[in-house]
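Let's practice the habit of predicting before peeking. Look at the sequence and jot down your guess about where helices and strands might fall. Then scroll down.
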Amino acid sequence: MLTYLDRTLSKKDKRKVARYMKEYNNMKAIIKSKELKLSPKLTSTIQESPVQESGNNTSEPEKLAILSSEVDELRNIRMRLDAAYHYAKPLHKLIWDECFIDDRMDADIYYGNDIPKRTYYREKNILMSVVAECLEIGTNMHHERTK
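Done guessing? Here is the structure:
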C-alpha cells in the first residue's frame, strides 16, 4: 500500500531529491526566463552568418523546440514538487523550508523547533521518500508495482 515508505533511497538518489527540493523556489524564475527566450522577438536583426561549421547543425527552430521541451520538463517537475509541498504535513513543510530552502543545519532546525532528533530525521526521510516518489526518482519499487 504505502511501499514508498519501505524504500530506502541511495545516497545518489537522496542528493538528487535534495537538489530538486533546494531549487523549488528558484524554478519559477528559471521557467519564466526560458519562456521569455521562447517568445517571438519583435525586432528583426540582420546578422552575417559565417560559413556553417561542421558539428553545429542545429537550426533556430530546432533550438526553440529543444528549449520548449526543457520548459515543459521543468513545468512538469515544478507541478510535482508543488503537489508534494502542498499536501505535506506542517512538520514536513517546516523541514523543507528550513533545511532545503533556507539551508539551515539539521541541529539548528530540530533544537530551534523543539523537535526530538530521532523524530526530525525520521520525518525528513519520510519527506524525501514522498518527494522521490512524486518525481519518480529511485523508483525501482515503482516499476515493480506497475508491472
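How did you do? Confidence is low (pLDDT under 50) at residues 141-147.
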